[in-house]
Amino acid sequence: MRQEKKQVTDISDRPVIRNLADVDPVRAQQVAALRAHALSDPEAFWLEQAQRIDWATFPTAASAASFDGDVSIRWYEDGTLNASVSCLDRHLETRGDQPALIWQADDAAVSRTLTFRELHAEVCRLANALRGLGVKRGDRVAIHLPMVVEGVAAMLACARIGAIHVVLFGGFSPEGIGERLIDSGAVAVITCDFSRRGAKRIPHKTTVDAALAHAGTIGAVKNVIVVQVTGDAVPMTEGRDHDYTTLVSPQETECAPEIMRAEDVLFLLYTSGSTGKPKAMVHATGGYMVWAACTTDWTLSPQPGKIHWCTADIAWITGHTYVVYGPLLSGTTTLIYEGLLGWPQPGRWWDIVDRYQVSCLYTAPTAIRALMRDGDDVPREYSLASLERLACAGEPISPDAWEWFYTVIGQQRCPVADMWWQTETGGGMLCVIPGAQPMKPGWATTPLPGLSAVLTNEKGEIIEGATEGALCFTQSWPGQARTIWGDHKRFRETYFTFSPGKYFAGDGARRDENGYYMITGRMDDVINVSGHRIGTAEIEDALATCHSVSEAAAVGINHDLKGQGIVVFVVARSAKVAPPVDELSRVICERVGRYAAPERIYLVKDMPKTRSGKIVRRLLRKIASGETENLGDLSALADPAVIPALIAAVGEQTITG
Ligand code: ATP
Ligand code: MG
């Protein structure tokens, strides 16, 4: 099924830039040509991009997408392929013995490296085992594993046999997992005994057992495969539960890939749940793979033989696209780390960077803020000289955190790609193409080639020039989610009714005179003070300039005179030094405007965060308004225990002053 590689404009071998404003003229010109081609002949452009992956039958047409009426998104419809072939088989001949996957265990002394050949064999064995259990094309398979080799193998094994993977975060409660098993109709679960989180052990198998009891007779799960991660004993149900090694090791190391249509579903993935109940986005095989290949190449320039480390959990879209599919497609080595940030000591990440000579480090602003809290001396004890590329995604990054990442970690040598995207978008959307354009700290910069970003006013009408509004896209792109699993109506209503004929991302953005975009926060979170519309990120960015502040979150509460008033929650950088509240207020007034002066500032120990590390402002808003009776869906929270602590802190500080 290997396809002769045709000519796709290659922009990956250009020199790395040294300075924020540095641009390599050749690369800039190549990218300009790419953008122009996408505009002048989108059909030809997208077919050219499709050559980045291997097809069994190359498609004859690119887009058949419409945002009107019932909304129908289809790409490369007559193409056929298998996603695992582009990640594994294509490399066997040229780099079969090169590392594909490195696993660093929580225990620094334990690690495992699989070459492309070994990963291919593991994937084939598991795929054969799944087939042997009766898992068929189109069946859903839930994966509930920590960051271990088997998690990556399980995703690719599902792809191999045309089963749809549904990766569920390891820390979900039995109810959270049970609901998702019912919603997705999973027929099998791949889990483990326990996982490690620092000193803690998280039960996976007994959680799945409880989830299956919760799902009861509605659930369709017939088989549970259990990986031994910690080796602790767990109850096994005869006939349903299988030990991974016993089941998988005797299998054949070849497995004929199921040839899928481009529009067949590759995976379902639930969003993070920052704004409400998580939604299961449906991603189709052909388009997703093409978009993963394009975005990885344009923004991260992965190279075979180099080490790529994206710290995201595979349960999030970043883990799908930039831990598994994107890097493996490009033949680079992807590194996964089982453990926690800063465990057992600060500097653990930098030790990994030096030890494996990591070239590209991709992480989230929440991690960057936590790393900053450790102080600059920690990373300065390490070389970090192997780093060439940095990237982050997940939340707005303040210019200060951006500068820190660029200066202290990247040593002003590595470009930082601040990539704005969503579970819904499949891959990066707004991002700098390093070397082709100047970077701008705190700005996700420009839409990637082929994308049609616009800003609209509150009525959904397009607004031009340097301005601020709702971020929408007028045209489909290959990696776009096709629907919400089992709920196309919610899909249409959530994304396509705000401004008919456009995809509404739900985020607000500012655009400068050069067409650069900065995300100002969620549209739901925009604060309207006496007619001034203020994005949460604007206030939070201002506070990030205060050295005593580690994290800040702004929310709007009802105000009799102003309509809304601003309340700010602040986590101190050091437990010993409380940020001076008057000073914080002054900084906001200076940087944003007097109208943004907060009504109240609360010092708190922790923010409510999703399991993917994002601040959940809707909960802060309720707590600040005293509406603590009905906090809504809390299943997405990483640590529900922060809620009573927040309510207590707000109660105390409101009384004392
Ligand atoms: P839910 O949709 O369930 O509320 P979520 O939106 O947090 O959860 P994800 O799909 O994981 O789920 O996150 C996408 C969102 O993350 C974007 O809509 C945006 O708000 C935020 N985001 C991602 N990357 C960036 C970035 N580089 N800059 C600013 N915001 C970002
Ligand atoms: Mg979202």
From TrEMBL:
Segments forming domain AMP-dependent synthetase/ligase: 89-475
Highest rank taxon of the organism: Bacteria
Key words, A-Z: Acetylation, ATP-binding, Ligase, Nucleotide-binding
Gene3D superfamilies: 3.30.300.30, N-terminal domain of ligase-like (3.40.50.12780)
Record domain AMP-binding enzyme C-terminal: where: 538-614
Domain Acetyl-coenzyme A synthetase N-terminal: 33-87
UniProt cross-references to SUPFAM superfamilies, sorted A to Z: Acetyl-CoA synthetase-like (SSF56801)
PROSITE patterns in UniProt: AMP_BINDING
One Pfam match: ACAS_N
GO molecular function: acetate-CoA ligase activity
Entry EC number(s): 6.2.1.1
Family (UniProt): Belongs to the ATP-dependent AMP-binding enzyme family.
Protein name: Acetate--CoA ligase
Origin species: Acetobacter musti
Upper classification of the organism: Bacteria, Pseudomonadati, Pseudomonadota, Alphaproteobacteria, Acetobacterales
